[in-house]
Design a protein that fits this description.
Helix content: 40-55%
Number of strands: 6
Largest sheet: 4 strands, antiparallel
Low-confidence stretches: none
CATH architecture: 3-Layer(aba) Sandwich
Number of helices: 9
Strand content: 15-25%
Radius of gyration: 19 Å
Structural class: alpha+beta
Number of domains: 1
CATH superfamily: NADH Oxidase
CATH class: Alpha Beta
Oligomer: single chain
Distance between the termini: 34 Å
CATH topology: NADH Oxidase
Length: 214
């Protein structure tokens, strides 16, 4: 239970500043160790994600938690096939220059190295017990919010993650045998960074660059 001091103006200001400092330390990791994390922790984080608000409370998301090493290897293989096409034909020179600072490449060894891959799917529509379609409202926005909850929960527990979106991701639905009403949204790679990994130095915008007060 929150104390009166914590819920006062001064208490809230202190707590929000502490949370801001913590969240500003979040960085995507691209090299992971095999250090184990209890699966119950990851399941709790997914449940936190599933507590997110959604259009008409339809909760249009599905999560597939991949731990099987053979399956992770196959995901990497098919993702890198997509990446080869992306880097060879689809990406612009300007886009390449933007990615250079992040040290990304078509090689995605993190898909095999990390202990967990959380594959997130958007349910374009629901299906009832009789097989009838159920309309979902704002499914992409809803799943985006849930994904933010997930990444935030992981970071607050000291666990690193990488939002990864190979395009197209149609292979993922086929590989994980998902139903036709689901569309791949993102792979969240989860684990602890390798000891040698140093995230690229990047700058975030400051308050005056993204906030307008009216």
């Amino acid at each position: 239970m929150t104390s009166k001091e914590d819920s006062s103006g001064a208490g809230l200001t202190r707590r929000s500043a502490e949370l801001l400092r913590l969240m500003r330390t979040r960085r995507s990791a691209r090299s992971f160790s095999s250090r184990p994390i209890p699966i119950e922790v990851i399941e709790d984080c997914i449940s936190i994600a599933a507590s997110a608000p959604s259009g008409a409370n339809m909760q249009p998301w599905s999560f597939v938690l991949v731990t099987d090493q053979k399956l992770k290897t196959e995901i990497r293989k098919q993702a890198e096939q997509v990446e080869r096409e992306f880097y060879a034909r689809r990406i612009s020179e300007e886009w390449k220059s933007r990615l250079k600072a992040l040290r990304t490449s078509r090689t995605k060894e993190f898909l095999e190295a990390a202990p967990y891959l959380i594959c997130i799917f958007v349910q374009k529509y629901g299906v009832d017990s009789a097989g009838h379609q159920i309309k979902h409202y704002y499914p992409l926005e809803s799943v985006g919010i849930a994904t933010g909850f997930l990444i935030s929960a992981l970071h607050q527990l000291g666990i690193s993650s990488l939002p990864y979106t190979p395009m197209p991701m149609t292979f993922l639905r086929r590989l994980l045998r998902r139903p036709r009403n689901e569309k791949p949204f993102m792979i969240v790679v989860v684990g602890y960074p390798s000891r040698s990994y140093e995230p690229p130095k990047i700058k975030k915008k400051v308050l005056g660059e993204y906030l307008t007060r009216l």
